Amino acid sequence: MRLLAAELIEGREILPGQFLQTYDAPHLTSARAGQFVHVRTPDYTGLVLRRPFSLNTVDRASGTITIHFRVTGKGTEWLARSRAGERLEMLGPLGRPFEVDPRSQHLLLVAGGLGIAGVRLLVDEAIAAGRAVTLLFGAARAADVYPSALLPDEVEYVVATDDGSLGHHGPVTELVPDYEAWADQLFACGPFAMLRTLAHQAAGRDARLGVARLGRRRGGRTPAPGTARARRRAWLQVALEQHMGCAVGACLGCVVWGTAGPVRVCREGPVFAAGEIAWEPA
Ligand code: FES
User: Fold this and answer.
1) Does the beta carbon of 244 sit less than 6 angstroms from any atom of ligand 1?
2) DSSP secondary structure letters along 53-104
């Protein structure tokens, strides 16, 4: 983790109110999928707080990273208006990444809306490792659907919209049962309600498919919760989106309830095995 300046190379609006920006930030290109950066603008008059952004893509050859964000307030408004050459403070890479089981060849990714930014880097990592990737994307309407042109050709991309204007008519989670026998692991980012539905689906998956499917026997001791091994052995991993103050574990502003007590999304997460999160209110 390092705090260094990053220079904006280019930015554009890719969806209504959503921007994709490329930064020269070699210190962040060691990041793994699921990790994030904490960004502070150079406007110290009214924008002193940093904002967290998923590392959307990284390019080690060019030393660049991208972030994908929606304009939701003054900080993101400022970012959206910034021009090439602008320099920001970026602290990162932060947080714990997704962990892919080395035996997993078929990865199912589910993204709801801006949650695509949380899993987008995993697409690149998985394809580079020779894995097959299916990405299920959910949006309210066709106008909000992530452009397929921003994805590698190797990905199977399936869309669901709430209003039926493109792809499956209904929640993206309704698509998951069609893939749960094919997928070795599922990785998701999006609204909490979507992740909760996926967690419930995942809990019943072994019973539906049979736990002793060829190649998926996972013997040995149960790994300790919160470890990379626990995430690697989970069928479903989720990246939680949460407001953050410090992003380094000090302010407790990002705490959510886990099954073993409170957890900080910035330190113990943002990626968790689904079984580590208390999905229902106590
Ligand atoms: S944002 Fe401060 S503890 Fe997580």
Assistant:
1) yes
2) EE--EEETTTTEEEEEEE--SHHHHHHHH--TT-EEEEEEEESBPP---TT-
What confidence tens digit (pLDDT) does each residue in 228-281 have?
Answer: 999 999 999 999 998 888 899 999 999 999 999 999 999 999 999 999 999 987
240 lines ligand 1 (CB under 6 A): no
pTM summary value: 0.93
Place of tokens 């060849």: 105
Q: Does ligand 1 have an atom closer than 6 angstroms to the CB of 264?
A: yes
For residue 36, what are the β-bridge partners? Answer: 54, 94
Sorted by where each begins, the domain ranges of the chain are: 2-94, 106-276
| Ligand 1 touching residue 266 (CB < 6 A) | yes
Which atom, in ligand 1's list, is nearest to the CA of 244? 1
Is there an atom of ligand 1 within 6 Å of 80 CB?
Answer: no
How many whole angstroms from 95 Cα to the centroid of ligand 1? Answer: 11
* Whether residue 252 has its Cβ less than 6 Å from ligand 1: yes
Place of tokens 């929606």: 70
Determine how β-strand 64-70 pairs with β-strand 18-24: antiparallel
* Domain 106-276 CATH assignment equals 3.40.50.80: yes
Pick the CATH number of 2-94 from 3.30.420.100, 2.40.30.10, 3.90.1150.10, 1.10.260.40: 2.40.30.10
Q: How far is the CA of 250 from the centre of ligand 1 (A)?
A: 6
What would the pLDDT profile of 147-193 be if each residue is shown by its tens digit? 999 999 999 999 999 999 999 999 999 999 999 999 999 999 999 99
